[in-house]
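re: that chain from earlier
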Amino acid sequence: MTWRRSGSRAGLAPAQFAHAPGSEQLHGQWNGAQLVVEHAGSRGRKLTETLSLEDGGHTLVIHVKIEAGDSTQAREMNRVYALVPAS
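^ sequence. v structure.
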């Protein structure tokens, strides 16, 4: 699976996202129900993001793992996004 991530999509139609200036092409693979994306992070360190849906699809969890660098330790963190019902 391949997609592009862009810093700004304001004013773009969905079909134009892949051609947004400064967009980054990312590649991922499905591991069961999780999407695993590996790419170069800051200073060339490997960054692995694992995306999964929890809570019956109401919560998106992105587990981020950054490999150790010359003077930094490896890091791991979770980004959690909850679905908010429309009001």
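Residues 1 and 53 are 17 Å apart (CA to CA).
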